[in-house]
Design brief:
15 helices, single chain, Low_specificity_L-TA-like, 7-stranded mixed β-sheet, Aromatic amino acid beta-eliminating lyase/threonine aldolase domain-containing protein, pyridoxal phosphate, 10 strands, Aspartate Aminotransferase, domain 2, alpha/beta, binds pyridoxal-5'-phosphate, about 40% helix
């Protein structure tokens, strides 16, 4: 007789999963809102539970995830981290050994604007912010004049150039990353100094590479360190992975511990993240297609975008069409669609076609009312990233 193991997914558990996924399907605030699938939960049940700090061989599930990222990127070594912020700050701290030193980055960069001011606190670094001339992404021409060479005591020498792909859903193309990288790596190195390092905040690098149709390994080759988020579009419950050379990762491990990222049984979360990666990576092009199709409809309704919709995000420019953020949130809420007042619409693997219909219908009504001169709610509202 064949013994069958009872499924851990009782009808009650399944119903709860479906309800969670249904809620996520209508949530356009971010791609962090995805919820675990049954496959991810199965992976959790099958995960190893070693102590990732004490056990000398580490944790097999964590190692399997790290190894998968090494394979995908062609980087030498990988390290599991708790969050994207932690991943970025570990990388930057590992590169930035002794002030005075500075980081050149986009003026909108997450590591500069959205990480609670961690960079000057943790790495004692100055920043040089750069505005891309093309209004979308940095190029070598933007970066060049901002590199501070070692030598003049008035200025903190540039030690890291930190790029971001995607940034507000826009792609930093491979050709630009390559041009910046070869310029930076070709800079003269003063005696006793390290070469200037290239870091990538690759929170959504899978989206960037999928949208451009570029090669992830060629992309990764431009950088000395990369931090990749697994809890964004990939859909893991938590976690990021830091990538670099073997020596870099060995040193980064100290900073992960120092920043509270040495965890005991992270195998369960790493296993969920690996299952999420295998599930979501092949689905990114479909998510981007859905985003572009919605953008075409919204543009036809008269909406404008503050940045081009290139991956899984639409950034509406509500100001340009005179629609107050409060009305935008309210009209979407009437259709049971969750949005932030900043009017960034984010699509993910659990976004449903029905939700996109509801979103477009809410925004159709909003634009019609605006054109009719209906008084729109204009109170100041907060929430999320406002
Ligand atoms: C989300 C994000 C991060 C990391 O954020 P956490 O919430 O700390 O995981 C880093 N960079 C970018 C561009 C992001 O979007």
């Amino acid at each position: 007789m064949v013994e069958t193991t009872p499924s851990p997914f009782t009808p009650e558990v399944r119903a709860r999963f479906q309800a969670n996924a249904e809620k996520a399907s209508r949530d356009f605030r971010s791609d962090v809102v995805t919820v675990p699938t049954e496959d991810m939960m199965k992976a959790v049940l099958e995960a190893s539970v070693n102590d990732d700090i004490y056990d000398e061989e580490g944790d097999p599930s964590v190692k399997a995830l790290e190894q998968r990222l090494v394979e995908l990127t062609g980087m030498e070594a990988a390290l599991w981290a708790v969050s994207g912020t932690q991943g970025n700050q570990i990388c930057l701290r590992t590169h930035l050994t002794q002030p005075p030193h500075g980081v050149v980055l986009d003026h909108r960069a997450h590591v500069h604007c959205w990480e609670s001011g961690a960079l000057p606190v943790i790495s004692q670094a100055s920043t040089t912010t750069v505005k891309p001339k093309n209004g979308v992404h940095l190029t070598l021409e933007d970066i060049k004049p901002h590199i501070i060479p070692y030598g003049n005591i008035h200025f903190p020498p540039t030690r890291v150039v930190s790029l971001e792909n995607t940034l507000y859903g826009t792609v930093l193309p491979l050709a630009d990353a390559q041009a910046i990288s070869s310029y930076v790596r070709g800079l003269p190195v003063a005696e006793g100094q390290q070469p200037v390092r290239m870091h990538l905040d690759g929170a959504r690098v899978f989206d960037g590479v999928a949208a451009e149709g570029s090669d992830l390994r060629a992309y990764a080759a431009c950088f000395d360190s990369i931090s990749v988020c697994l809890a964004k579009g990939i859909g893991a419950p938590m976690g990021s992975v830091v990538l670099g050379s073997g020596a870099f990762v060995a040193r980064a491990r100290w900073f992960r511990k120092m920043l509270g990222g040495g965890t005991r049984q992270p195998g369960m979360m790493a296993a969920a993240a690996l299952a999420a990666l295998e599930h979501s990576l092949p689905r990114l092009p479909a998510v981007h297609g859905m985003t572009r199709a919605a953008a075409v409809e919204l543009e036809a309704l008269g909406y404008r975008f503050s940045l081009p919709p290139q991956t899984n995000m639409i950034l509406l420019d509500l100001d340009a069409v005179g629609i107050p953020p409060a009305a935008f949130v309210e009209y979407c809420a009437r259709e049971k669609i969750a949005v932030f007042p900043m009017a960034r619409l984010v699509f993910h693997h659990q976004t449903s076609e029905a939700a996109v219909r509801a979103l477009v219908s809410a925004l159709t009504k909003l634009m019609q009312d605006k054109k009719k001169g209906v008084a729109l709610e204009d109170k100041k509202i907060g929430g999320g990233y406002s």
